[in-house]
Write a structure and sequence with these properties.
401 residues; 2 domains; binds adenosine-5'-diphosphate
Length: 401
C-alpha cells in the first residue's frame, strides 16, 4: 500500500466535517467544514494545500448536497487523483455491537440504525454521511469508527445502572461512554510520552470541548467514564447539564408542565456553562467576562471546575496508581484557569501544579504541568481524525486493532 491518505467524515446534526488525512504523519491535505446545514445560511469552507481557501454558499443544503460539493472540489485536486485509499466515518453510538473499526456492509448499517434510538441526533446524521460517501466513492472501502467502541471494555460494575436488571437485558439500558476515539488517542500519546507500554499504563484522560468527558484507563483499557447511556451524563458541558438528580427531571415533568421535548431542550441545549452563566457556552467568553467582574460567568467556571475535580477523584478508584492525568480538548488544551482551579480542588489527593509550565500549557516539557516529585499531569492535544484514518488503514491492512 503506497498511499496512506484517508478521507475522514464526521457528520454532526447540522454540520459536516471532512478531511483528507495522511494517516502516518497526521498531516491534513484538505480540510472542509460545512455548517448551519438545513438553513439559508448553510456554507462550506475548504482549506487545501494545493488550492488554498474557498468558501461556498450552500443555501438549505443537507448532508448529501454538502458532500457532493466537496466531492466535486476533491475531483479538481490533481495531486490527490487516485491516492485516497479509504473513507473513515465517525459514528457516535455503536451500542454493544462494536468494539473496533469495521467495514460498512448491510448488517453494519442495520446495527447503526438500531442504535439510533440511543443517539437520535447523531446516528441518523452519521448514516447520511455513509450513504453520501458510498454514492460518490463507490470504489473505496467505507470504514466506521465508533465513539462508544473504546469503552466496550468497561466492567459490569461501571456500566450498569442500579435499575432493574431486565432493563439492561431487554432494552440495553446501560452506560456506554463517548469520546472514545479521543480518549484512545490520548492513551496512546500519553504512553508514548511516558515511555511506557500501553498495556502497563494507568491514566485519567479528560476531554473538555463543547462536550466534556473523563475516562479512567487501567493497563491500556477503558474501565470507567463519565458519559453514560447518552452524552448527557457526567461533567458540566457547554450547554449540557451533566449529572443531576433524576428526581429533578420528574419534577419538571410532573409539577412544572414540561414536555419530554422541552426537558430535552433544557438539559441538552440550555444548561451547562450557558445555563449557569446566562451568557455563553464558550469558556473563552466566560473567562473574559469573569475577568471584568461578571459574577455569573465566574460561578459557571467554578461549578465546571469543581464538578470536574469531583469526577476525577471518583474515577481514581478505577485506575490508581496513576501514571498521568491528561487534559485535552479546546478547554483542556488552552485554559490555564480551568486547569489551575481543577487542580486546586485535587490538592488533597496530592496533585500539584507547576504554575509556569501551566501558563505555557506544558509546551516546554512534553506537556507536563506538574513538578517531578508530584503526580504527573499533562496537556496533550487530541487528534480524533488521525485515529479515524489509522483505524481504517489498519483494518484494510488486516492488522488487529
Ligand atoms: P468541540 O467539542 O466542538 O470540538 P473544542 O474542543 O474546539 O470543541 O472546544 C471548544 C471550547 O474550548 C470552547 O468552550 C472554547 O471557548 C474553549 N477554548 C478554546 N480556546 C480557549 C482558550 N484559549 N481559553 C479558554 N477556553 C478556550
Amino acid at each position: 500500500m503506497n498511499s496512506s491518505l484517508v478521507l475522514v467524515v464526521n457528520c454532526g446534526s447540522s454540520s459536516l466535517k471532512l478531511a483528507v488525512v495522511e494517516s502516518k504523519s497526521g498531516e491534513r491535505v484538505i480540510e472542509a467544514l460545512a455548517e448551519r446545514l438545513f438553513t439559508p445560511k448553510a456554507s462550506m469552507e475548504i482549506r487545501s494545500q494545493e488550492m488554498g481557501e474557498t468558501r461556498i454558499g450552500l443555501s438549505d443544503a443537507d448532508h448529501g448536497q454538502a458532500f457532493e460539493v466537496f466531492a466535486t472540489h476533491l475531483a479538481a485536486e490533481q495531486e490527490l487523483n487516485g491516492r485516497i485509499i479509504a473513507v473513515s466515518h465517525r459514528v457516535v453510538h455503536g451500542g454493544e455491537y462494536f468494539h473496533c473499526p469495521v467495514l460498512v456492509d448491510e448488517e453494519v448499517l442495520q446495527k447503526i440504525e438500531a442504535c439510533s434510538g440511543l443517539a437520535p441526533l447523531h446516528n441518523p446524521a452519521n448514516l447520511q454521511g455513509i450513504h453520501a460517501a458510498t454514492k460518490h466513492f463507490p470504489g473505496l472501502p467505507q470504514v466506521v469508527v465508533f465513539d462508544t467502541a473504546f469503552h466496550q471494555t468497561l466492567p459490569e460494575t461501571a456500566y450498569l445502572y442500579a435499575i432493574p436488571y431486565g432493563l439492561y437485558e431487554q432494552q440495553q439500558l446501560r452506560r456506554y461512554g463517548f469520546h472514545g476515539t479521543s480518549h484512545h488517542y490520548l492513551m496512546l500519546e500519553a504512553a508514548r510520552r511516558l515511555g511506557q507500554a500501553v498495556e502497563k499504563t494507568n491514566l485519567l484522560t479528560v476531554h473538555l470541548g463543547n462536550g466534556c468527558s473523563a475516562c479512567a484507563i487501567r493497563r491500556g483499557r477503558s474501565v470507567d467514564t463519565t458519559m453514560g447511556l447518552t452524552p448527557l451524563e457526567g461533567l458540566v458541558m457547554g450547554t449540557r447539564s451533566g449529572d443531576l438528580d433524576p428526581g429533578l427531571i420528574l419534577h419538571l415533568l410532573e409539577h412544572m408542565g414540561y414536555s419530554p421535548e422541552e426537558t430535552d431542550e433544557l438539559l441538552n441545549h440550555q444548561s451547562g456553562l450557558l445555563g449557569l452563566s446566562g451568557l455563553s457556552n464558550d469558556m473563552r467568553t466566560l473567562e473574559e467576562s469573569a475577568r471584568t467582574g461578571n459574577r455569573q460567568a465566574e460561578l459557571a467556571i467554578e461549578v465546571f471546575c469543581f464538578r470536574l475535580a469531583k469526577s476525577v477523584a471518583a474515577l481514581t478508584v478505577s485506575c490508581a496508581p496513576l501514571d498521568a492525568l491528561v487534559f485535552s480538548g479546546g478547554i483542556g488544551e488552552n485554559s490555564v484557569l480551568v486547569r489551575k482551579r481543577t487542580l486546586a480542588w485535587l490538592e488533597p489527593l496530592g496533585f500539584v501544579l507547576d504554575k509556569q509550565k501551566n501558563e505555557v500549557h506544558g509546551e516546554d516539557s512534553d506537556g507536563r504541568i506538574s513538578p517531578k516529585n508530584a503526580p504527573d499531569v499533562r496537556v496533550i492535544p487530541t487528534d480524533e481524525e488521525v485515529m479515524l484514518a489509522r483505524g481504517a488503514v489498519s483494518l484494510i491492512a488486516g492488522e488487529s486493532p
